[in-house]
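note to self — DONT lose this again. spent like an hour looking for the file last time. sequence + predicted structure for the chain T wanted, 293 res
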Amino acid sequence: MKDLTTISSILAMFNEAIYIVDKDRKILFFNKAAEEITGYKASEIVGKHCFNNILNHVDNAGTNLCINGCPLLESIKKNVVMDANVYLHHKKGYRLPVQVKSIPYLDGDTVTGAVEVFYLKRERTTLNSDFIVADNLSMIDSLTGLLNRNFLKYRVYDLIIKSGLSYALLFIDIDDFKQVNDTYGHLMGDEVLSIVSNTLLSNTSNLDYIVRFGGEEILIFVQVDNINQAVQKAENLKLLINSSEERSIKYRPKVTIGVTMFEKNEPLGQAIDRADKAMYKGKQNGKNQISAV
């Protein structure tokens, strides 16, 4: 790109996250907005190649787009603008949904690189503490930022039963979590739990309620119309968790998820027990899978 310094000084003022690559996909520029979304500083990114899996984009099926299906590469090869919904890998290990637009740039008639513009496509606009409990921090788990059991006791019926909406219950358990604690220590276990929790928070909506049930067990009340939608949502979340990573130990979390519909007016304990049994069945069948009842 001719006069990269001038162009970079202009793009640095944009609110949109932007980075520039050359025809070999070496990153030449990474602006402040991109730093804020990804957690990476420009100094950690510029000079590296995007296919080195730093941001490590994946799609809904968990396909690594940096290796197979990169929008930037398509822009450069075909001289076309590409739009895609992908999930990038935040520096802290969790997955964030982003919409990207890849735009080729030319030197004369020759494509010499591409510009990628991206922004968060997060369904959830606020954290649990902002829109549910306001000043009642007793309902927030301090480690993960998820809701805690106090939410189940004091607010679940007001916010779910009285909403008139249909909900499913997902019972999530991190597979072999004890081995992480035993091998790397409890602080690393906390990091893994944080990665899973932030992936869930980043890929659910304000109508979904995520609760740390105990240890590595997490409940999600997800707003869906039927069990098939619930299973699809659970599968998507599982794939995103599987493609997250605690890079310092090269650990990718695996989860087993039990899924059931939360029937109107049934005792909460009954629904949780049913989802728990479905999750346990998934454990017996090999782990890292979805089991629905």
